[in-house]
Amino acid sequence: MKTVIIIALISVAAAAKLPAGGVDTTQVPILRQNQLNPELGAHNFEFESGNGILFQEAGKEGVAGGATRVGSFSYPQEDGSLVEVKFVADENGFQPDSALLPVAPAFPHPIPQFVLDQIEFARLEDERKAREGKTL
Question: How much of the chain exceeds pLDDT 70, in percent?
Answer without folding.
Answer: 82
